[in-house]
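Name: Transporter substrate-binding domain-containing protein
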Amino acid sequence: MNSERRSIGRLFLGYLIKVDMSVFSFLRRFSLIGLVIAPAVLSHTAENHAVLLGEFADNSIDVTDMQPMAVLKMLQQNSPQPLIFTYQQMSMSRSWFELAKIDNSCMYNKVKTPERQRLAYFSHYPITLYPPLRLIIRAEDADKFSDTFDISSITALQNKRFAVASNRAYGEVIDKQLAQKQDLIFFRDGSDSVDKLINMLEMNRIDGFIEYADAVSARLKSTRKQFEFKGIAIQGVQKPSPGYMVCTKTPTGKHLISTIDKAMSSKDFQRGLLDVHREFASVDDKSLLESELKAIFNL
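Structure predicted for Transporter substrate-binding domain-containing protein:
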């Protein structure tokens, strides 16, 4: 009997180790080690456990390549309470539908709109600040475009094909103009929309799409793809675009945003976020982002 008990005990211990290693392997795949606290801690800090929804890859969340995992780590380090992040992989469009279903769900780097503010709590400060959005075109086609792109000028007679990511907010100015031209624009749905739009542009299936030039550069660098592109200024869009942390509109979501706001109010966090933006931004955009962030944080 004792030997049977010992055998059962060894089998159970082996199962636990296998499960634990499977979880470890999953976390390594998405570079999340160090951001998830042990299960014993989770049971005591459920209110500070945020489930992040989105598309996760190596140090990337959705379309955000600006070291999001490092920024989340800084939030944890500067939070007055233990702050835990775990992750659920899904497309950007599905994330907004699932946000209301999960009591402690949050998302990273979301543009603030009146419609979205009815669905979620937004952080007081932006978690990212990107240079102004651009029309991304093939470099070889630069002579076919003027220095500034006017979305309202798109017509069926132009014989040019433009695309954007579906269910994504581009800011008030661009969103209003896209709504008036939606029959003339291709909306790319599904996961990895930025990578797919880059591929479509490279294969000459579209003539341009709206994105941050630095984000396109980061994606091309991460995939080691050689593709020459040019970013054209969009009329009416001159200021950097802020993205915020958002959490579902539940008491737990409100508590999580409050905890995140406290972490972001730390001067150490603010200086760290400024350094991240300095490292990521191109030479042309570095001074623009730095001055804007210093004004936001009063540094």
